[in-house]
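G., before I forget:
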Amino acid sequence: MSKATFRLDKADRSLMQRLFEPPAVGKMSPVASLLAYALLAAWSLVVLFPIYWVVITSFKDAAAVNQGPFYVPFLDFEPTLDAWRAQFTSDPYCDVPSIARQIGLLAYNSFAFIVSPVVTLQPMEPQICKIFLAFTNSIVVSIAATGICVAVGAMAAYALARIQYQPKIGNVAIFVGLIVLIIIATSYAGVPWWLASSIALALFFFLARTLGRRFVLSLGNGDILFWIISQRILPPIVVVIPIYIMFQEVRLLDTHLALILVYAVANLPIVVWLMRDFFVSLPIELEESAQLDGASRFRIFWEVVLPLTRPGLAATTLLTLILNWNEYLFAVFLAYAKVQTMPIMVAAKNAGEKGVLWWEMSAVIVIMIIPVILMAILLTRFISKGVLMGAVKG
Amino acid sequence: MPAGSPKVPVKFDKVQKYFGPVKVLEQFDLDVAPGEFLVLLGASGSGKTTALRILSGLETATAGRVVIGERDVTNILPKYRDVSMVFQSYALYPHKTVAENIGFPLKVRRVAKAEMDSAIREAAAQVQLGELLDRYPRELSGGQRQRVALARAIIRRPSVFLMDEPLSNLDAKLRGYMRAELKHMQQAFGITTIYVTHDQIEAMTLAHRVAILDKGVLQQLATPAEIYNDPANLFVAQFIGSPPMNIVRGSLEGRHFLTNGARIDSPAGGQMDKAILGVRPEDCAVVAPEDGVLKGVIYTTELIGDHTLVTVEIGDDKLTVKAPKDINGNQGDTVGVALRREHLYVFDATTGQRIR
């Protein structure tokens, strides 16, 4: 290599080198950064334009929408509050006392939910501001479902990350066989379900204790994990009819509890999978040290593991919350009147003889996305880096 | 530290450990005296850390018993064993301050706040951390983190201290300093301590007794001096000492060791086709070719400072001689090597056992 190809001084570099070579390690070359920012700007446009469109559409009237497309308020079209009025003031039940009563009910129900075995959840009054009803329903359902889901899922994920399970395949087969027997006994022989299940349970423990000792083949944590994620392989539409019938049988249709339970179960696999990765990546010495220091397993989980996985926990919570907030399919089947959620409200604007009421739909959508944005801002504060710094490195 | 804290013996009784088909520890017997500083020394994979983890309860033995004091703790949870451990990585809780880290063992035992505070301050003072109680681990240097881990271990006065290579993440200077601190502290507290390391200097300087492990088998358990001067087998002889003991291959005939045409008076007698003669570098001397028991060619010389290491090639073997720093000798020179007869060791080349 000749000496001339080495240009150590910045001033010596040719124009091409200046454009295409990064000025320092860890920096981008001018062309690359131009390209990167151009792409980012273009993508931002793709992401932000629909939001802008929804917001301005909510201030349009029928004429502005139908003769459209109009892009700029005041220049292209005259903004109006019609769509918003349709949601609030023109609804006869949207006066302040009703809303106050609703808030009271919501507070009571939040409390009742915690002690739900003792106190029954009050149904929200149907003759009341529809948008407010849907909004509170959505909040109650998605927060409660997310809470259950993350709490149960995180504990399950921790157990799967740190405890080695070895369920024998034979025992699993016995369990499945007994369930089939219960179904046959209850549906064809008329045995009461509680009798059949308790006999089956006793039989299972007996068989697992005796016959189970002879089984050799066993599953591992990986198989359990796959079993959990496999719950998400089926599209929800496949299971929605059985679930509908199930809730019909236990008379929980159109209740908060039904939606909360379904949402919690549906998103559990996601929480388990995400959280397990965070737990596995924690240095195990911290937990071993706490164990030697005398902490119980639950204390270790609560006081050592959870604080260190807080960013992951926040991200998982946010994701679950958004999934629950936006859920439509289960809501449309299981909650037809009293516990309608926001997505149902949005879809409802697409019905009736007047066609799609784009402006009203946009207003509802704006109401619907505000809490999500607030939640995201709140939770990203927790998604900070460097929680583990100083734990194990010398 | 109250002076009258009970000193507790520790006993491994025929402990075995398998990870699946892999044997990690085999028939491991070890008696640790009350208040003793015992070092488990071995290369990585020797089973030393596994032995420590079995004692702590973080690992369960496949067979055998572990006894702490009077209690058989083989199947007892770690938290009921009354041991505390310093990890190689320190394992500090990064979201807790130094004070919270040190106080954690007391917190889980529901010790009253005032009592806990004074205990934290006392423990911190013992490791010179008094100023840093409000800092977080990420704001500390390696040596300071190490001392937090130490303070957390001493605060609840365990029956047994366990240390898993606690100094190996420190730089050389700090390691020397902390070594002295550890030794002083252990002496002062008198708590039975089991210390795992792969560093022979740490083992020699810290231990009352050293247990050398290789491939899951205890090779020798003795005081540092005995380990050095009276190794039980070839592995121990070569593992301890820097540079390691020289070995010369040959055969044993009566009271003589035969190698490379030389006939050396042997400290042990016997008849053996394949034997190994061991001699430490400091027990050799470079002399004129006609004066040495062995004759060879200088392979290389290295000036260390207070001495020079001369490597002499004799047949297929290389002998390292710890020579005076001002020795003259160039690569390729023919020299003799003199050996001190009273410091020769003979080993069976097939089993590695010492022949006495």
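The first strand of chain B starts at residue 10 and ends at 19. The radius of gyration of chain B is 24 Å.

More on Monday.
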